[in-house]
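Section handout 9: paired folding examples.
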Amino acid sequence: MSRIPELLHRTLFRTVSLLGPRAQGKVLHRYFDWWHRRPDPWSLATDAYERRKYRTTLDALPEGAYARILEVGCAEGVFTQTLAELWPDAVITGLDVSERALARARERGGGDGGRVRFVHADLLGHEERDPYDLVFCAETLYYVGRGDRLRRASERLRALLAPGGVLVLVHPWPEAERLHGFVDGDPTVTKVAERVERDASRPYAISVYRAGSSRPTEVVRPAIDGDITSK
């Protein structure tokens, strides 16, 4: 999404977040069904920026045998399909508020033997008995609003993790500092890595957390000119 349309898009959803939770949820469901009136409206399957972001996100992952994986805000399942290919034995869930997007995701994910499922729900409304080993939440938290709503969404993400499970948050930089703030302050998880990609068109941060971990954080922040600094 180019800069001006994105600013208008984000302004709209800041306004929507002023509504009560139920009204906000209805608006989000209807808007994203309308947004997906045509296939792949964000060009997630073809845009070079998005494809590069997927690769960078996967590169940031700790090695592990992830048996249960959740993608929050999966849209039409482009990244979900990549996860299914990389972890062919994992049970994978894609979560989204748009039933229209999920219908396309199910078409895309055909032939997976039933181990990939797509659920029509928002983050706070997703009930799951078994926790996940790996949870992705990308380009989503700015839709939930500020303050208490962001706090509850962050707590829900943490609650979905199995012991030792990994949570990956990906959001625009520097707004990610605010959006990831409640998870940063949660004593039950530890940030084990962070990478800031100062892309010329749209910088973003990838923050990786592990439930119950006490390992130090690795921070990698490429400068605009491509130099990499770490601490």
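Moving on to protein 2 of 2.
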Amino acid sequence: MPPAYEAVIGLEIHCQLATRSKLFCACSTRFGAPPNTQVCPVCLGHPGALPVANSRAIDLAIGMTLAAAGDPRRRSEFARKSYFYPDLPKGYQISQFDAPICDGGRVEFDLHGRARAADLERIHIEEDAGKSIHGTDADAGGDSLIDLNRCGVPLIEIVTKPVFSTAEEVKAFLVELRRLVRWIGVSDANMDEGSLRCDANVSIRPRGSDTLGTKVELKNMNSVRFVGKAIDYEIERQIAEIAGGGRIVQQTRLFDEGGGRTRPMRSKEEAHDYRYFPDPDLPPIFLDEDRIERIRAALPELPRDRAERLAAAWDLSIDESAVITSTRELADYFETIAAAGPEIARRAAKWVPNELLGALRSGGGTLETFPVRPAAATELLAMVEDGTISGKIA
């Protein structure tokens, strides 16, 4: 990036909540079902069909709020967000606007070994739309098709403040956020299945200026790597546009994975374009302290806290503790072994990231299916420690 400019980036992350049923009806949220088989009058928007809020989805949203150091609103409400797409049969999406489930928040992440933090604007609950499949897609066969299985699936939208300036920062944040939502059981966060989707609002301004430039929203990025590529391309595109005497148009652009570039999709809407108003079919959400504290008490030790504790308890390096706490299951596996004593723990700190994860990568398996359970691994490492077998054999 030329030194005369700096980028300003904010994120909107849609995270599918780990519920078995949709946000306002009893339809299944299972991924991969045949098209239009997980629908009912409520999620299809039939006249007279009334929504009922999924209490489990609200609890998960509260849990994410607490894990992100946010403040759950004691009174929040659902609102109708009106727009007309073929995959939105009601003609509006049930979301939240003036009174979201969470105000504020903060997510810490590491970049080049240094702790950083991203402040959140809000977290709100909303239902997902359906999926349009157009003629250019292999499954469409030249037609435009609509699958409404996803319509009504519960989401939280995590909105950051515009605190990022590089794609590298964004990628590091997304990796940490994905770890966090998986760790606390809010979502499986599989980007390839659409259960974690990230939109980026990108603008540039003269370096040192306090005035924000015209923002462009980027969509259609289904991996952390593609998010980074899209942001890098868009920053360069905007700089070139301004350097050539042009101006930036506020719009939504799609990322083309094949070409590695963004292309215009539509002009970017403002909040007033959606005509938000409170949903008359849904009562406000009132939270009492007992419910909030019950959810707080059920949260596991958070990944960054656990990484610090394990590093201190077993003299692990930053890299070792980061790898071991990359998933909650892996951290549990390690701690079960480490309970055998400090010598075994030190062996496990090397064995888990190298041999165990190497075996999973080469075999394509998961920790759940890995045949060497913690008890057997403890015996194995004890044999290495007393010299019965070599570390290479283990």
